[in-house]
Design a protein that fits this description.
- The complex is a heterotrimer of chains A (290), B (273) and C (288).
- Chain A contains 11 helices and 10 strands.
- Chain A is an alpha/beta fold and 290 residues long.
- With 273 residues, chain B is an alpha/beta fold.
- In chain B, the strands form 2 sheets. Chain B has a 6-stranded mixed beta sheet with strand order 6-7-8-3-9-10, sandwiched between helices.
- The longest helix of chain B has 18 residues, at 193-210.
- With 288 residues, chain C is an all-alpha fold.
- Chain C has a single domain, classed as MetI-like fold.
- In chain C, 74% of the residues lie in helices and 0% in strands.
- In chain C, helix 7 (149-176) packs antiparallel against helix 9 (191-230) and helix 9 packs antiparallel against helix 11.
- The chains are: A alpha/beta (290), B alpha/beta (273), C mainly alpha (288).
């Protein structure tokens, strides 16, 4: 079966410019990354800042192009032929991704106009608002009149406007309260089943990932250091970085605390990822780990 | 033994565009000497307003504290003359700010910023310290927050420091005048999860080692469980429930608390009910 | 979220604006002047004095109950001519701004959004235009073409748009980095849509402020030009010309020069106060 999304060996390097604009080096934001998502699946990409997750998202959306490698949606490479309608994105900060001077209806209208939606556009907007469980009259409201959760629902409605097959969710709930977050995740799950959507879920929140994603890829400095079904990776992490990530998550129950790996302290502190991996290599002999 | 900080029946209203809203309704909480207390609530619950009222950073108007007391060390902060109130701030009672990016002046070195803060704090306390003494104290606090190369960091501008290092600088700033109460406003929320874990552990260790009282303001229940032994749960301007952290998580009494805990996703997977 | 229904934007804006005394004064002045200009024939005591009327027995009369601003050197009522003079000033300001604002805004949008050569060409053009003083330019044009006030104002307009381009350019640069623009691009919106529907509404407040402040300046420049002799042909009243002709009778018949001058001050002040008030209003909004 053709995967809904296939990322093949993509590499993206950015030039580092100094103050005058002269190129002084290069950083590999994405270093030979590959993964696939089956149709209807949920793949979680876990990483912190600088891991390359945002760059990968932007390449899938066609906002940047990889230096090498390929991105295929439903078996068709999007590098040769850009196909915006198949994949859409929900951004992290709902307050920032909606134009403050446009009403909800006008914002949701944008993709309908851009993709030349045939049919009654006003009715479609109404249907979309129903789908995300917002009252239809919200179409006349401005973003500042809505709560964070409501704004994010509008962003979801907008992303679904032209019936994409793949949805990229970039930290969709990190700006929301935890009770609102739960409802938005529920909504995404229901919609996913109803509409047969495939999700690429990018987040640093591992607890959320455990409950939402089926497969997970741990991203560190542009490389996927560990991947597999989410339960297996979380319960039996193999890579040091995965272990460090899991150990850093603040949890609310004793049983969660018990499943977290124990990380040796360096100088009384939790080590950074580099320190931990250097320790493993035996190169860093700062202090004997307890 | 009376608590170091005791907020009693604090009520605050806000007036904007001609409309008045009650933001805090008879809020009471105690922070005993050396205790680690968390104030947890979602956005709009009133936890930031409470914190600002304690620190004396609430602009009145549009806010108005119309009832209650804030007792610190046996004295009501709300009835203190302004001069004495200001003298307390940054000395006996000190705050660790939330956003390390915007809380540091980008055109001053770390040494300059911290020395200046220390100079004014010393003045308020009537303490005499010369330039050399201030530099030494700045290096001292930077070492306390486990900076790897304190002299190099002190001589640097904020822009070259990482997010985690800047947060440590903010903690160092709060420790300068040997406070007795540390108020931490969502520490580490702007940081990566691994960096946040380091910062939280640092805070815990410092507080225990120096016998400080800690009041942590947060929306993250996981942070509450890991950093405090007493928790106050806030919703819509009221304290809904309070008590020892273990008890609240194991057996929450109020529906709001139960719902809040149930909404948090578990690392162990779905909670089957 | 909160149970309190969020107040609409316009209510909030009006509330804050009305609490600012100078802003309200500015608004009142502008409205008064505009209404006076529109209804001039109906509200002035001697509407025919704008035509070729002379009344030599009544010349150089000081302000009195019959003539609120006195009469000029040929006996015409100055108050009436001042009110009609507002017509000229305001319509000239309108002509200049209706050309300069849309043109300048469009150039700023293009330069700010597209960057590259578009930006370089447009911004260097504005640099050149900004180096030329408007008043001198107007006089130079008058020396070459027919010396009429309209020609002079068109010369001003040809330079004025560059100020707006500068302003809009810097605003568009900021807005372009916002996430909602990226979202619109991701959604596949066309460039025209992004420029006109996403970016332009966010410039609206800056345009409103600058345009009101500009109106005051343009009126002053128009009055200066007619003072210097490029005025509308007599007998049509024009504030600057009135100041000029009246100046030769100072200090004995002071009202013939000073009162039209005060009228110019009045209308320019109104626009300045209004512009400042709008700026205060929108500044807070942006900080929020």
């Amino acid at each position: 079966m053709t995967p809904a999304l296939e990322i093949r060996n993509i590499i993206k390097t950015f030039a580092i410019r100094n103050a005058i604009g002269r190129v002084s080096g290069a950083v590999k934001a994405v270093d030979d990354v590959s993964f696939t998502i089956p149709p209807g699946g949920v793949y979680g990409l876990a990483g912190e800042s600088g891991s390359g997750k945002s760059t990968i998202a932007r390449m899938i959306m066609g906002l940047t192009t990889p230096d090498s490698g390929d991105i295929l949606i439903d078996g068709v490479s999007i590098l040769t032929k850009a196909e915006r309608g198949r994949v859409q994105m929900v951004f992290q900060n709902p307050g920032a991704s909606l134009n403050p001077r446009r009403t909800v209806g006008q914002s949701v209208m944008v993709p309908l106009v851009a993709h030349r939606f045939q049919g009654d556009r006003k009715a479609r907007i109404g249907d979309l608002l129903d789908m995300v469980q917002l009252p239809r009259h919200f179409a006349d409201r401005y973003p500042h009149e809505l709560s964070g959760g409501q704004k994010q629902r509008v962003a979801i409605a907008r992303a679904l406007a032209v019936s994409p097959r793949l949805l990229v969710l970039d930290e969709p709930t990190s700006a929301l309260d935890v009770s609102v977050q739960a409802r938005v995740i529920d909504l995404l799950e229901n919609l996913g089943q109803q509409l047969g959507l495939t999700y690429l879920f990018i987040s640093h929140d591992l607890s959320l990932m455990r409950n939402f994603a089926a497969t997970v890829g741990i991203l560190y400095l542009g490389k996927i250091v560990e991947t597999g079904p989410v339960a297996g990776v979380f319960e039996r992490p193999q890579h040091d970085y995965t272990r460090l990530l899991l150990a850093s998550v603040p949890v609310i129950s004793a049983e969660e605390a018990a499943m977290r790996p124990v990380i040796p302290l360096i100088n009384g502190e939790l080590p950074t990822a580099e320190d931990l991996m250097a320790l493993r290599k035996g190169l860093n002999a700062k202090e004997n780990p307890r | 033994m009376t608590a170091l900080l005791s907020v009693q029946n604090l009520s605050v209203s806000f007036t904007t565009y001609g409309r008045t809203a009650e933001v805090l309704k008879a809020v009471s909480l105690d922070v005993p000497q050396g205790a680690q207390v968390a104030l947890v609530g979602e956005s709009g619950s009133g936890k930031s307003v409470t914190m600002k009222a304690i620190m004396g950073l609430l602009p009145q108007p549009p806010a108005r504290i119309h009832a209650g007391k804030i007792m610190f060390d046996g004295r009501d902060l709300l009835t203190l003359p302004e001069r004495e109130r200001v003298a307390l701030r940054g000395t006996a009672m000190s705050m660790v700010f939330q956003d390390p990016m915007s809380s540091l002046n980008p055109v001053w070195t770390i040494q300059d910023q911290l020395s200046t803060i220390l100079k004014y704090a010393d003045r308020r306390l009537g303490r005499d310290r010369d330039r050399k003494g201030r530099r030494a104290r700045v290096l001292d606090v930077l070492t306390q927050v486990r900076m790897r190369e304190p002299e190099r960091v002190a001589a640097s501008y904020p822009i070259i420091l990482s997010g985690g290092m800047r947060q440590r600088v903010l903690i160092a700033m709060a420790l300068l005048s040997e406070p007795r109460l540390l108020i931490a406003d969502e520490p580490g929320t702007a940081l990566d999860v691994t960096t946040q874990a380091q910062i939280l552990k640092l805070l815990r260790d410092l507080v225990e080692a120096q016998g400080l009282a800690l009041l942590m303001i947060t929306h993250n229940l996981g942070v509450v469980r890991e950093t405090s032994n007493t928790v106050y749960v806030m919703n819509k301007g009221e304290i809904v429930e309070s008590g020892p952290t273990d008890r609240i998580f194991a057996a929450p009494q109020q529906q709001y608390t139960r719902d809040l805990i149930a909404a948090v996703p578990r690392l162990t997977g779905r909670v089957t009910t | 979220m909160s149970e309190v229904q969020a107040l609409s934007n316009s209510y909030q804006n009006w509330y804050r604006f009305s609490r600012n005394p100078t802003a309200v004064i500015g608004l009142v002045i502008v409205v008064l002047c505009v209404l006076a200009a529109i209804f001039a024939p109906h509200i002035t005591p001697y509407p025919d004095h704008v035509g070729a009327v002379v009344d030599f027995r009544n010349r150089h009369q000081p302000p009195s109950a019959a003539h609120w601003f006195g009469t000029d050197n040929v006996g015409r009522d100055i108050f009436t001519r001042v009110i009609f003079g507002f017509r000229v000033s305001l319509s000239l300001a309108f002509v200049v701004l209706i050309i300069a604002v849309p043109l300048g805004t469009l150039m700023g949008l293009l330069a700010g959004y597209f960057g590259g050569w578009t930006e370089i060409i447009i911004m260097r053009l504005t640099d050149v235009a900004l180096a030329l003083p408007p008043l001198i330019m107007a006089l130079a044009v008058a020396a070459v073409l027919e010396p009429s006030l309209m020609n002079a104002m068109l010369a001003i307009a040809s330079l004025w748009w560059t100020w707006h381009t500068r302003l809009i350019y810097s605003i568009v640069r900021q807005i372009r980095a916002q996430e909602y623009i990226e979202a619109a691009e991701t959604l596949g919106a066309s460039k025209v849509h992004i420029l006109l529907r996403e970016i332009l509404p966010n410039c609206a407040s800056a345009i409103a402020v600058k345009t009101s402040l500009d109106a005051g300046f343009v009126i002053l420049i128009g009055a200066s030009l007619s003072f210097l002799g490029l005025g509308i042909q007599p007998p049509t009243p024009d504030l600057g010309t009135m100041v000029a002709t009246g100046a030769s009778f100072l200090p004995d018949y002071w009202w013939e020069s000073l009162l039209p001058g005060t009228a110019i001050l009045f209308v320019a002040l109104g626009f300045n106060l209004l512009g400042d008030g709008l700026r205060d209003l929108f500044d807070v909004e942006d900080v929020r």
